[in-house]
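Section 3.1: Structural characterization of target chains.
Under the original work plan, the team committed to producing a structural model for every single-chain target entering the pipeline before any wet-lab resources were allocated. The record below documents one such target. The sequence was received from the expression subgroup and is listed exactly as submitted; it comprises 287 residues.
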Amino acid sequence: MEIAIGLPGMIPGVEGDTMKEWAIRAENRGFDSLIVDDRLVWSGYEIMISAAAAAAVTETIKITAAVVLATLRTNAAEFAKQATSIDRLSKGRFVLGLGVGSRPDDFVASEVDITKRGKIMDGFLERVTSIWNGDAEPIGPKPFTPGGPPLLFGGSSDAMFRRLARYGTGWICATSGGIAGMKAGAERAQVEWEKAGREGSPKLLALVPRFALGPNSQDAVDGYLRSYNAYRGEGANQRASSALTTPALIREQLDLFEEAGCSTLIINPCDPNPDQVDLLAEVIASR
């Protein structure tokens, strides 16, 4: 099972030097991928710019967007150019996760109708893949990866699993899914995969609760997760209480998901201190 570590770009107040140091340490400590995530109405960095910045200071680690809120990207052609630019600049290290989005405030700010997000996503996919495959007018650099960056999909709708089978290479299970959700989603993904006539199986990725280690771990969790998840109401407290704040809790998640057949486990941070990269790497090495 591969282990992916999130960049702290969604944590308010993080500066560019911290992001750079985090990315370099993650590569040096042997993590398989750096994760960047997306949210519009929030004080974090823009996901594609974060991905490009991470690619610029690293050489071998994959850069994975998990996930871009694709339905808010109303200019699909411009987005296709952004994605292939990162794909080429990173020499094929960019993996692109896509989702339809769920937070109403993001759609209001974007002036996009949330009730039409499924239709928007289908049109988006047709457009970007036609550009990457060379079936449309030339827009942006030629993809380093033939056909464009590998696509992952987040979500749990029937339509999402059909999109995965048609366009994708893997599915991302949300934090709320847990082991049971990942297993159930894997079965649904496999059914659609076979219906589409594809061989093998899609990759299975999973998000676990965010982590913070060391003496300031609880302060980091409380300071970040409760505000980030405020839109969930009481759910914000649940997210904070489920954070991984000890080596034992992290090892437990690693063991459970590896046994369940997870391809890549994604562990995002609550504390932006780059020392967190080393602390997490040490926990993984101690298994």
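The first helix runs from residue 16 to 28.
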